[in-house]
Write a structure and sequence with these properties.
alpha+beta, globular, binds zinc ion, Glycosyl_Hydrlase_38, carbohydrate binding
Length: 1029
């Protein structure tokens, strides 16, 4: 066989080329005479470069979508896997791949040992391959990299301890668009290949034309190719047999041989079984399609997926697909002289090793493939940018679970090791017992990263099932946090009774803050900072009296502020809007805690005799003033604009709307307009839904002023800790803007925004956004399109240029932590706490989608609109920064934004101490902070083969990249080069005997490292280490 030589020079391509609507769009097929000519030429050369076909049976199983995870398992998945054992045993050359360990591990639990042996045998024979090996096939747009990685670790660790296998290739065929973070995590976990499917139709055509559907995917910062992963992109629409054997679905549909009595499908009616009479014709037609597919690649190898959603649940299908394809393959192989083809069943690894043996050099691509657009339903572009925002309540909750889980993993690792090393059997026993529930909390979080879960694209009852599972995880993580903290702070054999300060009765309820117990007029509040950096955290607790003092762990009285707690009373006259009253028995104590890196600290809120108290806030209100006996100084809001001010800036608000207008930085005296607008797009019926976004541009207004008919009330509350403007817009929106007063703190450098938005009830075809309109010139010339920057999975930043032709829907991108715009002298950043859709469609504008409510389905299979909206809390930081004249090679957040983002994503945990003696008022778990450009992503105790905690923990570190062209307001705290710990850093009270460098999911161990001093992580990268005790 003559090896095919291809281009020697790697092209570096960034997928940001112009998108236009090509002429072939109506026919929904890019295959034209140029492609056909190229195929024919290639076909003439098959003697020199034979066609190689790999037939790969697979079943795409969603861990929840139209049915719940458990329902799918019972109805389909267990049958697929049971049949798999019988059929792989019966047909000795049959292959199969499996991706979702969530399903597989559930099935394995009840599997007879004899069958377990068979599974291991199929794996050894390389006939059963685990692709990805992650808990689920994650969404790649709305997930944060913490959870993406966590569910890879969960799956990989399971595979290693139960089957003894390490995955080699990843399989991501149904996620709605593809980003660079999933391949990065897979590559860093030791996988060398990946597969993608759903990308924008013009990209599909472009890659096909360039014969570049197998390409090297490289990270944007990587100049050496360390992150390179070989990616195979399926060239046609979707992974069903009809859409994947070649460019012509009307031919391919005849090769889906599933025929089940009582099932009426297109393929069931069209596909004729292979027999002696038709085999030649059927084989030759199919070969043509395979040949066409292969002509899109330089190597002439074609990967043919044989399957679809939940296939092979019936034993007959296994027989039908196998027997028919086996006959075709045997016939083609027997006539090798005629067909010059080698065809067999195989796995994903078989495909990639064939490709690598035939082709040595590939096109290199950097960047991502968002936004996905298909054309196959209507022959017009349909942008999948709705799901970036769909069901925000769930999107917020998963991040809450994520923060809790990260916090507990770290604390648990310290607590259980401390208990073992100090010989405390009492605590060891209790903590070991909790490990199983901790695992289930991880697995629920992992499950929710599935591409129909966090995306919000499952049916309403399935979303509710996910919600319950998330709530369970919140409760578990709170409970284990309480136990771990109690074990670290109490005397041997004694419990400290800790409770979380937040209560959520059931899924869908807004969280309620519990009032601190002031019996004995002293309440104890325990704070846990899981960030390995010093943290200034704004703490809020609810008390029954406004007359209190706050003491830090040293007993020093610190500055605090007493705010009112409002109750909304609906009277008959104002039943829709209600009236605001001061709560008589509840007050909010606000203070800023100075917390050490990775530490626990006990603060006290102490009741005082009623007296004059400077901490009590002043309240400005434009409604009725409350003349009853309230402790607050009350005043009417003055006419005109409102201004809040601290040492760093002045923030102006529109006196009529109460919404932000501008920020003046005191460093330069320069004012930047940043006017906040709330609006709503009207959805196009049936084209905007859980997946798709399509605003109705036929209406004369580009958007609806959704606040216009709401009853409005502005309240300003100001005191020594913070000043706050709150605006109520009826029952629709409550928004507050806060500036903090703490000289020298980073808290003074941003505006904190929180709001509750509720579009349940009367709203329909409504997609609500907030837009900041600034005077920042994020374009080179007036005629240029604006540029904005969006994070991807909270891991890196990607530049997004406006493509006017694609409409607003084609210019919406996913954000999970940040978006910003900038010009030569300023940068305006919006930090977010959960996934949103976001766009920089308008010059000087950053727009963030908040919630969506659509009555109708958008025709992508889910079959429902989205009407289960809930009152949802969103949190943001707004950061305005001065730039200095240097240039970053790739876009990055500033160090300040990174720090504020950390505070948003991983807030300090607050526990109320109900009872028991706290032996240590302050406990530091680490002797020094980490440099401020190093994040501790996780420190997670690994399980041993019996699924109990082992003597090993996986430490994952992230050396963030930060922008050098932003004036830093933070002291120099990053270290140069790749250093990751300050010298002689140690864990407090825990002896670490070995530090072993390993792959991200802990499957491929590398070299031993002497101490933390020697740990090296290059900027932008994640690295993992096994700590052995
Ligand atoms: Zn799917």
């Amino acid at each position: 066989m003559k090896l095919f030589l291809c281009c020697k020079v790697n092209m570096i391509l960034r997928p940001s080329g112009k998108r236009s609507f090509p002429a072939w769009i109506k026919s929904r097929e890019f295959w034209d005479s140029t492609f056909e000519e190229r195929y024919k030429k290639r076909r003439d050369n098959w003697k020199n470069l034979p066609l190689k076909v790999i037939l790969m049976p697979h079943s795409h199983v969603d861990p929840g979508w139209l049915k719940t995870f458990d329902r799918y398992y019972e109805d389909s998945v267990k049958h697929i896997l049971n049949n798999m054992i019988d059929k792989l045993d019966a047909y000795k050359d049959l292959t199969f791949i499996w991706t979702e360990i969530s399903f597989f591990s559930k099935w394995w639990k009840d599997l007879h040992p004899r069958k377990r042996k068979l599974v291991k045998k199929f794996v050894r024979e390389a006939r059963l391959e685990f692709t990805s090996g992650s808990w689920v096939m994650t969404d790649e747009a709305t997930t944060h990299f913490y959870s993406m990685l966590d569910q890879i670790i969960e799956g990989h660790q399971w595979l290693k301890s139960n089957i003894g296998v390490t995955p080699k290739s990843s399989w991501s065929i149904d996620t709605f668009g593809h980003g660079p973070v999933a391949p990065y995590l897979m590559r860093s976990s030791g996988l060398n290949n990946t597969v993608t499917q759903r990308m924008h139709y013009t990209w599909k055509q472009w890659l096909a034309a360039k014969q570049a559907d197998d390409f090297i995917w490289r990270q944007t910062w990587d100049s050496h190719g360390d992150s390179d992963i070989l990616c195979h992109n399926f060239p046609f629409d979707i992974y069903s047999i009809k859409h994947s054997c070649g460019p012509h679905p009307n031919i391919c549909v005849n090769y889906d041989f599933r025929k089940i009595r009582g099932e009426f499908t297109e393929y069931g009616m069209k596909a004729e079984p292979v027999d002696k009479m038709n085999i030649k014709e059927k084989a030759e037609i199919l070969l043509e399609e395979y040949g066409r597919s292969a002509s899109l690649f330089q190597h002439n190898v074609v990967l043919v997926p044989i399957g679809d959603d939940f296939r092979y649940d019936k034993a007959e299908e296994w027989d039908q697909q196998y027997i028919n394809y086996k006959q075709l393959a045997d016939y083609i192989n027997k006539n090798r002289d005629v067909y010059n083809t080698d065809i067999s069943f195989g796995t994903l690894s078989d495909y990639f090793s064939s490709v690598r043996s035939r082709q040595k050099s590939f096109t290199t691509i950097q960047g991502d493939f968002f936004v996905y657009s298909d054309i196959f339903t209507d022959g017009i572009p349909a942008y999948w940018s709705g799901y970036f925002t769909t069901r925000p309540y769930w999107k917020a909750m998963t991040r809450e679970v994520e923060a809790n889980l990260r916090a507990v993993e770290i604390l648990y690792s310290f607590a259980s090791q401390r208990a073992r090393q100090t010989g405390s059997h009492f605590w060891s026993r209790i903590l070991d017992k909790e490990y199983t529930s901790l695992s289930s909390a991880r697995q629920n979080l992992g499950l929710f990263q599935h591409h129909d879960a966090i995306t919000g694209t499952s049916k309403e009852n399935v979303m509710l099932d996910y919600g319950q599972k998330l709530l369970t995880s919140l409760k578990i993580t709170d409970n284990v946090l309480n136990i771990a903290a109690s074990s670290l702070l109490s005397r041997e054999g004694q419990f400290i009774d800790l409770t979380s300060d937040i209560e959520r009765q059931s899924f869908g309820d807004s969280p309620v803050r519990i009032r601190v117990n002031e019996q004995g007029r002293k309440a104890r509040v325990l704070l846990y900072n899981s960030d390995p950096h010093f943290r200034e955290e704004v703490i809020k607790v609810k008390t029954s009296s406004p007359y209190v003092l706050v003491k830090d762990p040293t007993g020093t009285v610190i500055t605090h502020q007493i705010n009112p707690v409002w109750t909304l009373v609906n009277d008959n006259a104002h039943s829709e809007h209600g009236e605001l009253f001061y709560s008589k028995n509840n007050f909010e104590v606000v203070f800023i805690a100075n917390l050490d890196p990775l530490s626990l600290a006990l603060y006290e809120v102490i009741g005082q005799a009623e007296s004059s108290n400077t901490a009590i806030a002043t309240v400005y209100k434009n409604g009725k003033l409350d003349n009853r006996n309230v402790p607050f100084d009350q005043q009417k809001v003055k006419e005109g604009d409102i201004q809040l001010e601290n040492n760093k800036m002045k923030v102006r608000f529109d006196g009529r709307s109460g919404l932000m207008r501008s920020i003046t930085l005191k460093s330069t005296g320069r004012t930047t307009e940043c006017q906040l607008v709330f609006g709503a797009y009207q959805s196009t019926q049936f084209r905007s839904g859980s997946y798709l976004f399509k605003p109705d541009v036929s209406t004369d207004k580009p958007y609806i002023d959704i606040l216009n008919d709401q009853k409005k009330e502005i309240i300003i509350v100001t005191g020594p800790v913070q000043s706050e403007v709150t605006v109520l817009y009826g029952s629709l929106l409550i928004i507050s803007f806060v500036v903090y007063h703490k000289p020298g703190s980073i808290l003074e450098s941003g505006v904190h925004i929180e709001h509750f938005l509720d579009i349940s009830g009367k709203y329909r075809e409504t997609e609500v956004f907030m837009r900041f309109l600034t005077d920042i010139q994020n374009y080179k010339q007036k005629s240029d399109n604006p540029v904005f920057f969006a994070d991807i999975n909270g891991f890196q930043i990607i530049e997004r240029k406006k493509h006017a032709q694609a409409g607003i829907e084609g210019n919406y991108y996913p954000i999970t932590s940040a978006a910003y715009i900038e010009d030569s002298s300023r940068r305006f950043t919006v930090l977010v706490s959960r996934a949103h859709g976001s766009t920089g469609f308008y010059k000087g504008g950053v727009e963030v989608m908040l919630d969506r409510r659509m009555m109708y389905d958008d025709g992508r299979g889910m079959g429902e609109g989205v009407v289960d909206n809930k009152n949802t809390l969103s949190k943001f930081w707004i950061v305005l920064e001065d730039k200095v004249q240097t240039k970053d090679e790739i876009p990055k957040l500033s160090l300040l934004s990174h720090r504020l983002s950390n505070a948003l994503l991983y807030p300090t945990k607050l526990f109320l101490v109900e009872d028991g003696e706290v032996a240590h008022k302050r406990l530091n778990l680490i002797t020094k902070p980490l440099p401020c450009d190093v994040n501790m992503v996780n420190l997670k105790t690994l399980a041993d083969e019996y699924e109990v905690p082992s003597q090993e923990a996986l430490l994952v570190l992230h050396k963030i990249g930060y922008s050098c062209n932003i004036e830093s307001v933070i002291d120099k705290c990053a270290v140069n080069n790749n250093e990751t710990f300050y010298s002689s850093t140690e864990f407090n009270g825990i002896y670490v005997s070995e530090i072993l460098k390993t792959s991200l999911s802990g499957l491929h161990d590398n070299e031993l490292i002497k101490s933390f001093d020697k740990v090296q992580v290059p900027p932008m990268e994640l690295r993992a280490y096994k700590l052995r005790y």
